[in-house]
Amino acid sequence: MDGVCSVIILKETIVSAGAENYTVYFPDREIEGYGINKKALSSLKSPALLVALDCGIGNVKEVDLANKMGFEVVIIDHHEPLAEYPKASIIVDPKQRGDKYPFKEFANVGLVFKLAEQILKMSEPLRRSFLELVAMATIADMMSRIEDNEEMIIEGMGYLEKSWRPGIQALFGLYDFRNLTLMEKIIKVNSLLNISDIKDGLPLAYRLLTESDMKKAEKISESLLEKGAERKRMIQEIIREVEERILMKNENIVFEGDESWGLILLGVAAAVLSKNTKKPVFLYRKYDKDSQGSIRAPDGFNTVEAMKSCSKLLSTYGGHPKASGFKISNKNLNKFRDCLINYFEET
User: Fold this and answer.
1) CATH class of 2-160
2) Position with higher pLDDT, 248 vs 65
3) pTM for the whole structure
4) Smallest Cα–Cα separation from 290: which of 326, 261, 338?
5) What is the dihedral of CA 251, 254, 259, 262, to 10 degrees?
6) Which of 20, 49, 177, 201 is the most buried (most CB within 10 A)?
7) What is the pLDDT confidence band of residue 98, given thresholds at 50, 70 and 90?
C-alpha cells in the first residue's frame, strides 16, 4: 500500500502539472526482488528521469547501472540507509545522514505528499484525495502515529467515507464491512489491497485505486473478499507449518523457508509468528539458486543492523528495524542463520 499510494500520488501530481510522457513500473517481487533491478532498467527507455519510490536507498549497484544506462536517478525512500549510499542525483530520506527535518518516521507516501505540495498548487479536492491515500498507507505501513503522521492520518480519515475515488467508495461500501468502525474498515481494506494480483504489470491495489468506473470498482471489490479468504487460509497454513518446525528448537530467532510459500504472504505470517514467539522472524521463499525473505521483529530488535553485520552473505537487504527483507544465495542460508543467531546473542 505504501509503495502503490506513493506512485499514485506522484503520477497524478505530474499529470496535473502537465506531464504526458511517463511510465509506471512495479517490480514483480517474486521474479525481480524488491526495488531497482536490472530487468526493470532494461525494460525502460533511457535517457530519462527515474524516480524510485519506497525503495532505492539500498540499491547501490543498481543505481550505478542506471547511471551508466543514461537514467538520472531520484530516490524517495523512508527505509534505513545502509553503510554505502547510492550515487543518485537526489536522495530524499529523512533517515539519511545530515537530514535536518525534525520528524523521521514518515511512511513513504507522506514524503511523496510533501513533494506534491512543492510541485503543485493543489486544488482542495486533489489535496483531499491525496490525504486519503496518505492516511490509508501510513496505517498500512504501521508507522508511528505521532506528529506529522498523526496530522495527515486524522485529516485523511476525515475524507475517506466521502471519497470521490470509485475504488475507495466500492471497498468501504462492501456489505461485510457495514457494522465496522472507520478504523476497522481501513484495516480490512488495507489487508484486501495487499492481495497479490498482477495484470499488465500493475498490482491490484493500483488498478482499483485508480479505477474511474464505479461498476468495475464494485466488481473488483466483491471478488477481493473471496480472494481475501483464500489468502488468509494460505497464511495460516504457513504459520502452522513454521510452528511445527520450531517446536523442538530453542534458537533466539525463527529462521525458516520453503519452495511452496508465496513471497507476498510471508510478511503477514512473520508478523503473527513474531508476536507469538517474541522473537525476530525470518521467513523466505526458496527458488532454484536464491531465496527472498521477509522479516518481522518485536520492539527492541533492529533487523537491519543485524543484517548489516551479515551483509557479506547477502545479495540485497534493507527496510525498517522491525520490518525488513533480504535476498540471498541458497548456499549462504545456513551461514546467514548462524550469523544472525550470533548477532542477537551478543546484542
Assistant:
1) alpha beta
2) 65
3) 0.88
4) 326
5) 170
6) 177
7) very high
